[in-house]
């Protein structure tokens, strides 16, 4: 798609960067752009087309959507055609379509297959983190390059875009600004500048700018996705059952939320509040006066990427404490404050190299955050503590109390499932264990019983896994198991010691402030209710006694009538 293409030589130029298609050298296309060589059996799919240069006029949205849909169907059909046997393509197509349509378990099979890929993907990512040299030419490199496929704005357009977003000329705000982006991301770029006048004591700032044209392309292609989902729901019963339209809407909202810079500024400020005076972090201060829908201004912190091991070592940064701090901070973010990065990875973690904050973690990318409720945090902390202690019965009980399994699920069976999944993780030495993999079983052991856990807990577990892999890449000998166990045990103790009691009482005090003055009135109402209830019970008892006596009297009258009739009949018979 154009939103992923560098030279836009074809509607699917980004496919050239996929590891399965990328081969060694690059060749020049007729338009001068660099294209990667692709396998011969797929070369017919990607015919070269005229490059759409940045100065070309934008394509009308409706025509773009129809064109994208056309190429999606066209190349998708070609891929399926090439996958068919050479001499039996038509028969293969008909058989495939009939079997998929007739199979009642096709959808269930897909749902069963996808979760099984999770451990494979996790092991693959863990291997890449421990041995970065394996990442060359793999999907990891391709995904890492996606954020840099879009061309940044030229310097003159950068100045115009910043001035339009802030409503003031750049020359009146900045004493100097580097119009070459310090960091170039997906539909956004970051520049470093010096303010003409300090704001809140900050003169050197970093300003993130969203590229409006590319954001419009993303929104347009998301609209195409919603349009396709809407028509599929109209035409297919299965699509309506899957609620494709709702899924497309949720996907669109999640994508566009990544470019909401006001929300990102609020997330940055909230995290700074949670970790105030924490010497492990260097969180940039937000310059609210320069924040708009298209710009995010923050204090500039000179930093290096977390995986620039040579650069960090050259500046005297100790990697082992840094790795430990990453695990500690991410664990506290999710399970103490309940506000964490939902898309944490190495690209979003940097390390300060300024003298005052040398070696501190810089978490400056807060585009996608997630949160946990109090009950979700308490479940995970208590459940993880029980799992570390190998108390599977207690963990099974916690799952029952949280409603993750049905009430008719036998606790001993869930306990046995947890034991089967988790015991193997305790065999290696502590520094060789993976706490993230153990937490995976903490959440997913309920699936065989038809249970499920909240998606936000799954997101928190994945974020922890990412932090664990990053820590292992920084220092392979880091004991993530011991660190996670220590942090979670500390959080569990806080819930039951005097600090936990004080915190819970403080949370209830606002409610008590409204409740205490009403206690006399509530007591009177309670006594009146009890008195009325007692009267009602007495009246009900009296009515019950009357009804009982009435039934007895009626039975007695019927008995007398019957006996009298019988005696009369006997007397008449005796007279004859």
Automatic annotation (TrEMBL):
Which SUPFAM superfamilies does this entry report, sorted A to Z? Protein kinase-like (PK-like) (SSF56112)
Question: What keywords appear on the UniProt entry?
Answer: Membrane, Transmembrane, Transmembrane helix, Ubiquinone
Q: Where are the transmembrane segments?
A: 555-574
Presence of the UniProt keyword Transmembrane in the record: yes
Family matches, as InterPro entries: ABC1_dom, Kinase-like_dom_sf, UbiB_kinase
Q: ABC1 atypical kinase-like domain spans which residues?
A: 152-396
Domain of life assignment: Bacteria
- Asked if the record carries the keyword Acyltransferase, the reply is no
One Pfam entry name: ABC1
Q: Could you say which protein family the record assigns here?
A: Belongs to the protein kinase superfamily. ADCK protein kinase family.
Q: What is this protein called?
A: Ubiquinone biosynthesis protein
Q: Which organism is it from?
A: Paraburkholderia diazotrophica
């Amino acid at each position: 798609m154009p939103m992923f293409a560098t030279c836009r030589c074809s509607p699917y130029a980004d496919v050239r960067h996929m590891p399965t298609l990328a081969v060694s050298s690059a060749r020049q296309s007729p338009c001068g752009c660099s294209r990667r060589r692709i396998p011969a059996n797929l070369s017919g799919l990607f015919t070269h087309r005229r490059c759409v240069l940045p100065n070309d006029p934008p394509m009308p949205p409706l025509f773009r959507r129809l064109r994208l849909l056309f190429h999606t169907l066209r190349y998708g059909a070609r891929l399926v055609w090439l996958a068919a046997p050479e001499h039996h393509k038509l028969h293969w197509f008909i058989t495939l379509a009939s079997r998929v349509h007739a199979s009642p378990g096709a959808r269930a099979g897909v749902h069963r297959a996808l979760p099984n890929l999770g451990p494979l993907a996790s092991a693959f990512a863990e291997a890449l983190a421990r041995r970065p040299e394996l990442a060359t030419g793999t999907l990891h490199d391709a995904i890492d390059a996606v954020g840099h496929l879009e061309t940044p704005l030229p310097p003159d357009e950068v100045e115009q875009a910043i001035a339009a977003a802030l409503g003031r000329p750049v020359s009146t705000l900045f004493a100097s600004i580097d119009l070459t982006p310090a960091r170039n991301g997906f539909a956004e770029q970051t520049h470093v500048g010096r303010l003409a006048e300090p704001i809140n004591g900050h003169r050197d700032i970093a300003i993130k700018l969203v590229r409006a044209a590319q954001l419009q392309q993303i929104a347009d292609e998301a609209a195409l996705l919603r349009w396709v989902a809407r028509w599929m729901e109209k035409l297919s019963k299965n699509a309506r059952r899957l609620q494709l339209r709702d899924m497309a809407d949720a996907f669109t909202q999640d994508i566009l939320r990544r470019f909401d810079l006001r929300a990102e500024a609020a997330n940055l400020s909230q995290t700074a509040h949670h970790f105030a005076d924490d010497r492990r972090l260097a969180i940039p201060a937000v310059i609210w006066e320069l924040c708009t829908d298209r710009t995010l201004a923050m204090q500039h912190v000179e930093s290096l990427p977390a995986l620039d091991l040579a650069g960090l070592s050259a500046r005297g940064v100790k990697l082992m404490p840094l790795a430990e701090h990453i695990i500690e901070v991410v664990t506290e973010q999710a399970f103490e404050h309940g506000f964490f990065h939902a898309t944490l990875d190495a690209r979003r973690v940097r390390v300060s190299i300024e003298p005052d904050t040398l070696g501190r973690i810089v978490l400056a990318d807060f585009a996608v955050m997630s949160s946990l409720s109090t009950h979700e945090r308490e479940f995970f902390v208590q459940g993880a503590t029980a799992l570390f202690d190998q108390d599977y019965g207690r963990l099974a009980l916690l799952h029952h109390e949280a409603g993750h399994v049905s009430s008719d699920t036998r606790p001993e069976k869930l306990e046995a499932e947890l034991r089967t999944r988790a015991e193997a993780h305790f065999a290696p030495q502590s520094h060789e264990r993976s706490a993230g993999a153990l937490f995976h079983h903490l959440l997913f052991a309920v699936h065989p019983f038809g249970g499920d856990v909240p998606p936000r807990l799954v997101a928190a577990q994945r974020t922890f896994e990412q932090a664990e892999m990053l820590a292992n890449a920084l220092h392979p000998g880091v004991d993530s198991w011991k660190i996670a166990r220590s942090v979670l045990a500390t959080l569990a103790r806080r819930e039951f010691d005097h600090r936990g009691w004080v915190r819970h009482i403080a949370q209830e005090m606002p409610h008590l402030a409204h409740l205490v003055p009403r206690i006399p009135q509530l007591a009177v109402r309670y006594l009146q209710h009890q008195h009325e209830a007692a009267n009602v019970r007495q009246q009900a008892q009296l009515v019950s006694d009357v009804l009982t006596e009435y039934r007895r009297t009626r039975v007695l009258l019927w008995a007398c009538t019957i006996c009298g009739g019988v005696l009369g009949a006997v007397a008449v018979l005796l007279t004859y």
